[in-house]
């Protein structure tokens, strides 16, 4: 459970996204548009056909890991390293996003609702990261945390750190919805097939003689 969120708040978050029926119209339009990419050879690769499972869950590790590490290096007063890590995350974002959209096409109605909100939250987080990176590049110092003669963190540097911190929070929230989408709603998840497994028979299962 995320820090600061109770069970009831989590249930409200999940049920609210699942019941967002107002997204069904836009979702259908987007599904038709993104479906063109999903049906292409590139879409098959993005969906993970060569490896046998969706690529998006693996690809997200790069931007999330880079941006989380950037926050650590900001705290350690190593702004140049933090800036480069934010840049790395931004470079990894386009293929990650495209893979996510291709996966989204292969979902049901409720999953598409949650997926759209997941994408919107993550998109906002990535936008904040991009703004932070731009501000870091344009700041007078080499990165986010520069100091004045008096030793105080400059306003520009503090703003860049704030932007990336807010972006990290949004990415975390988006990841929470992504986890719910995959593990609770089973988006793009197939049950494993066990070779030569016995077929389930409800009549035999309820038989009094079955004491296994």
Provide tags for this entry:
single chain; 212 residues; mainly alpha; 9 helices; 0% strand
Structural overview:
It is a single chain. The protein is mainly α and 212 residues long. 67% of the residues lie in helices and 0% in strands. It has 9 helices and no strands. The chain has helices at 7-18, 24-38, 41-46, 56-59, 61-75, 79-105, 109-138, 155-184, 202-205. Helix 2 crosses helix 6, helix 5 (61-75) packs antiparallel against helix 6 and helix 5 runs antiparallel to helix 8. The protein starts with 6 loop residues before the first helix and ends in a 7-residue tail after the last helix. The model is unreliable at 142-152 (pLDDT under 50).
Give the helices and strands, then pairings.
Layout: H1 7-18, H2 24-38, H3 41-46, H4 56-59, H5 61-75, H6 79-105, H7 109-138, H8 155-184, H9 202-205
């Amino acid at each position: 459970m995320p820090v600061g969120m109770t069970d009831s708040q989590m249930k409200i978050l999940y049920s609210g996204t699942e019941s967002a029926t107002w997204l069904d119209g836009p979702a259908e339009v987007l599904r038709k548009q993104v479906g063109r990419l999903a049906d292409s050879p590139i879409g098959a690769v993005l969906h993970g056909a060569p490896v046998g499972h969706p690529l998006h869950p693996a690809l997200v590790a790069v931007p999330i890991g880079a941006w989380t590490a950037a926050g650590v290096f900001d705290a350690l007063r190593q702004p140049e390293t933090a800036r480069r890590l934010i840049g790395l995350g931004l470079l990894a974002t386009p293929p990650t996003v495209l893979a996510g959209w291709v996966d989204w096409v292969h979902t049901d109605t409720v999953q598409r609702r949650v997926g759209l909100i997941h994408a919107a939250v993550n998109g906002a987080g990535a936008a904040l990261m991009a703004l932070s990176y731009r501000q870091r590049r344009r700041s007078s110092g080499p990165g986010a945390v520069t100091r004045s003669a008096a030793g105080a963190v400059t306003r520009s540097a503090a703003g860049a750190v704030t932007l990336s911190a807010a972006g990290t929070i949004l990415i975390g929230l988006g990841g929470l919805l992504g986890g719910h989408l995959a593990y609770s709603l089973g988006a793009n998840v197939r049950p494993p097939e066990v070779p030569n497994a016995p077929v389930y028979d409800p009549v035999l299962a309820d038989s009094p003689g079955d004491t296994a």
